[in-house]
Amino acid sequence: MSYKLTLKEAQKLLDKLSLTYDIYAPKKLKAQGRYSDTDIIKYEKIKNIDEIEYREKSTYPMKEVISPIQQTIFYFTEDKYRESKVSTKPILVFSRACDINAIKVQTKIFIGNGGFVDYYYQRMYERIKFILMECDFESDTCFCVSMNANITNNYSLAVRFEDDGIHFEVKDKDFTNYFKGYPHSSFAPKFVMENKTKVHIPEIKDRNMLNKIKKSPMWKEYDKRCISCGACTIACSTCTCFLTRDLIYGDNSEVGERRRLSSSCQIDDFALVAGGGNYRTTAGDRMRYKVLHKFHDYKERFKDSHMCVGCGRCIERCPEYISITATVEKLNKEIERIEKEEASNV
User: Fold this and answer.
1) CA–CA gap between residue 232 and residue 65 (Å, rounded)
2) By CB atoms within 10 Å of each CB, which of 4, 121, 158, 274 scores lowest?
3) CA–CA distance from 38 to each of 31, 175, 193, 252 (Å)?
4) pLDDT (0 to 100) of residue 114
């Protein structure tokens, strides 16, 4: 069932929902961008309808609601430790289809990965419900259609923003009572069915092909171009890598807290191991690892979709203007070259 509310009625609805839910949405933060006097759009807790930024894509992904860039996981003393506490209120998040599909990817890694369950992710994920926002803008960095991430049915409510009000589709019966007395509408959410940017997803047919691609000279280009800053993976809606750090209180090394911090496979010491060994010493090695993980390894592991959802944030955040779509197309050409070479050797 669908309804149309005026902006004033939508604010009253938000006030009622806020009594039960913590509500998050993309919010424009003035003058907090990378450059002087620029803005960023991040997912933040909101209280007012006019805080929701629905006209533009968020700078950072929705995953930060569930797995923040930095979070305390437990506190410790000399002889005991205590898990960190979080709010017990359920969570509602205004989000687009690509970000909702990205959470599906993250959940497979944190909860469905061969029986492993990440407690700190699970305790947040179990509280969350999604409010689907329509995409009514076109970005030349989006390629969600190519990644089959443009459509989702994993939402409780759907919304369409208009100048004089907001349409709501109620999919989850838990929210039906909130809309009693409001006029019905014929609203059904529309999904993006075509992007300006299209990507042909590579097919790596066997391990022999995979090994040849890993040794390909195409990756050496990124030794010069990539500066290993990790901006692409922090902006990525599906990346899950993290490290842990202990924060010590004062002079007593036995008292403090352990924090989990988002990390990146693109920084130069990510693959550093005990004894000083490093399995990916160049920027090209690390780019190869990221691209093959997004467009081959994840699907091989989970037999479902590719890891990338085509949000394009990595392209927008890269200070060296490295495009993941251009990189994938180069990978396609390299596969074609290897196949022709193999055919000529038969």
Assistant:
1) 18
2) 274
3) 5, 37, 31, 42
4) 75
**C-alpha–C-alpha distance, residues 4 and 187, integer Å:** 8
Evaluate whether 133 touches 62 at the Cβ level (below 8 Å): no
Given the DSSP bridges, would you call strands 40-45 and 22-29 parallel, antiparallel or unpaired? antiparallel
Per-residue pLDDT reduced to its tens digit, 45-91 = 999 999 999 999 999 999 999 999 999 999 999 899 999 998 899 99
Distance CA 17, CA 49 (A): 12
User: 26 to each of 37, 60, 164, 288, 305, how far by Cα in Å?
Assistant: 19, 9, 20, 31, 26
Contacts 24+ apart (CB under 8 A), 208-215: 209/335, 209/338, 209/339, 210/292, 210/296, 212/338, 213/292, 213/331, 213/334, 213/335, 213/338, 214/288, 214/292
Q: Quote the CA–CA distance of 72 and 6 in Å, as a whole number.
A: 40
Q: Is the pLDDT of residue 255 over 90?
A: yes
Average pLDDT, the chain: 93
Q: How far apart are CA 333 and CA 329, in angstroms?
A: 6
Q: What is the C-alpha separation between 293 and 298, in angstroms, rounded?
A: 6
Which residues contact residue 46 at a Cβ distance below 8 angstroms, ignoring those fewer than 6 apart? 14, 23, 24, 25, 27, 52
Locate all alpha helices (DSSP H) within 171-229, ordered by sequence.
Answer: 207-214, 221-225
**99, two tokens:** 């970000």
Predicted model pTM? 0.93
Residue showing tokens 């979070």? 71
Residue 27 Cα to chain centre, angstroms: 16
The CA distance from 311 to 237, in Å, is: 8
